[in-house]
Design brief:
By secondary structure, the chain is mostly beta strands. The chain is built from one helix and five strands; from the N terminus they run βββββα. About 5% of the residues are buried.
Length: about 70
């Protein structure tokens, strides 16, 4: 989840980023995180929906431990 601040009339900028899994604020100058953006297509039940997720590294590690196939290194 991102909190935005209006920088100029037509522009916004993310000023705080929170993990969508655990809710922790991500200190972007001190830690990395996973950002996912997906616009769902015609053959889904979410056609045209846009989802954006920010996930801290701890939650990412816990998430991928449950995968049948681990991400490539």
């Amino acid at each position: 989840m991102r909190q935005y601040e209006i920088v100029e009339k037509q522009t916004t900028e993310a000023v705080r980023i929170f993990c969508d899994c655990c809710g922790k604020e991500i200190q972007t100058n001190q830690e990395d995180y996973l950002e996912i953006e997906k616009v769902w297509g015609y053959f889904s039940n979410k056609d045209g929906d846009r989802h954006q997720l920010d996930i801290c590294e701890d939650c990412y590690d816990a998430w991928v431990r449950g995968f049948a196939h681990t991400p490539m290194k």
